[in-house]
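User: Design a sequence. Structure:
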């Protein structure tokens, strides 16, 4: 009898021990302070269960009434990569401790450079089938930017209707990499829709911001050989080899052989990777790729998923190969014409990390100078001003009218990951039109931002 009682007590103690360990792990992975203001699913089609997953973080310290506080929408690239990557590795209020040593546990830590310091911040897993978003049928996943934009428009209009205060808030679409197509397509679609509705029913789009974007691929793919050669990374023979591969990608694109053109672009980048043997072309200063795996580990935790409002038993993938393949033929198609309308009817910010050899400064310079826009000559003739944050050199800003371009020093493809505080200063000053990002540039201006920890 005593033995049975003792066994029961031991089992009970073990149960409470493991329950406590699980609870402690869950709390440590997702502290209460790190929970979003709102989360859930936004339908993309009234006749389908397909929906875009979102996380929304209200501004921590808004400087205006919430009904007037800007709202930033973040779209990840890929195609097929989850915006949870941007949230938990780059610009969200809490990030994984990506600088940890192998013996340290995975944790979330406050991000002093979060983009929701004074703005609302909405992360969308786009397109459906990406991250935690739901695609009822594979054939519902978009195959081009027109469908991507339609889904995003359905999602954002539903989100705005969920709270009357969202209706009047200035909206800025932001993103990076393949969002160099998503963001312009979304903004372009909003402008078209707004033109059909009275002002009271329009989406209050003010601007679009893209970091290290793939926007006009046929022009961008033709820059890699020269960029690598004049950076001292390849010799002349290797340069000619890359140029031959680039010419093939351009010819296939011009022939509208989209699938083959995408494959040809991949051959260019794969050959450049093999020639240079960098750990990653996304940031040639790094000894290892970005820590996407840590975000995947975080979001495969059942307790974390439940706390974020995730439906079902989906196994989280940072980037979906399936969605990427569905958009295979979209890869080499240009959205430059969409940017041309946006720069005429809204504001546009382009920014690039200087260490990115895939979609950095040179590929973006190449397509921007071909914009069909009445302000392009003024932009190309404008000074590239030295930009400082807290007195430290942060990069360079070139601005004319509604177009602003920023070169960010010390950063690669994921600018907010590499330069959190500087990226925060950039997005805040651009939205608020302050300093170098205002209507007129002045030399030697310095933006001062607190370097202390973020206050929750």
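Assistant: Done.
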């Amino acid at each position: 009898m005593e033995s049975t009682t003792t066994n029961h007590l031991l089992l009970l103690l073990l149960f409470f021990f493991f329950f406590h360990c699980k609870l402690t792990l869950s709390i440590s992975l997702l502290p209460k302070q790190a929970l979003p203001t709102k989360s859930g699913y936004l339908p993309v089609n009234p006749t389908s269960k397909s929906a875009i997953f979102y996380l929304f973080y209200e501004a921590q310290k808004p400087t205006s009434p919430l009904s007037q506080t800007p709202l930033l929408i973040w779209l990840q690239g890929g195609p097929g990569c989850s915006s949870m990557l941007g949230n938990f590795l780059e610009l969200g209020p809490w990030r994984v401790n990506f600088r940890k040593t192998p013996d340290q546990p995975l944790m979330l830590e406050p991000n002093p450079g979060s983009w929701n310091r004074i703005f609302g911040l909405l992360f969308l897993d786009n397109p459906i089938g990406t991250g935690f978003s739901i695609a009822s049928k594979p054939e519902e996943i978009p195959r081009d930017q027109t469908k991507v934009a339609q889904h995003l428009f359905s999602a954002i209009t539903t989100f705005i209707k969920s709270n009357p205060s969202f209706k009047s808030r200035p909206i800025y679409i932001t993103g990076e990499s393949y969002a160099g197509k998503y963001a312009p397509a979304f903004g372009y679609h909003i402008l078209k829709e707004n033109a059909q509705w009275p002002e009271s029913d329009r989406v209050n789009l003010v601007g679009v911001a893209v970091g290290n974007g793939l926007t006009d691929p046929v022009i961008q793919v033709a820059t890699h050989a020269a960029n690598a050669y004049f950076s001292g990374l390849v010799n002349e023979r290797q340069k000619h080899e890359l140029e031959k591969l680039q010419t093939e990608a351009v010819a296939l694109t011009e022939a509208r052989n989209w699938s083959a053109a995408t494959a040809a672009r991949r051959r260019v980048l794969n050959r450049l990777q093999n020639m240079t043997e960098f750990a990653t072309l996304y940031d040639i200063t790094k000894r290892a790729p970005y820590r996407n795996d840590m975000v995947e580990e975080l979001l495969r935790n059942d307790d974390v998923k439940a706390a974020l409002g995730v439906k079902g038993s989906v196994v989280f993938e940072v980037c979906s190969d399936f969605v990427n393949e569905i958009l295979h033929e979209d890869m080499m198609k240009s959205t430059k014409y969409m940017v041309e309308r946006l720069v005429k009817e809204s504001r546009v910010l382009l920014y690039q990390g200087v260490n990115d050899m895939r979609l950095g400064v040179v590929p973006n310079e190449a397509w921007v100078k071909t914009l069909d826009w009445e302000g392009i000559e003024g932009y190309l003739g404008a000074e590239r001003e030295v930009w400082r944050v807290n007195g430290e050199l942060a990069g360079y800003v070139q601005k004319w009218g509604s177009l602003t371009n920023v070169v960010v020093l010390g950063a690669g493809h994921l600018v907010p990951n590499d330069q959190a505080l500087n990226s925060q200063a950039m997005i805040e000053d651009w939205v608020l039109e302050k300093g170098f990002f205002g209507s007129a540039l002045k030399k030697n201006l310095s933006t001062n931002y607190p370097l202390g920890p973020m206050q929750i």
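DSSP finds 16 helices and 13 strands in the chain. Residues 220-276 form one domain.
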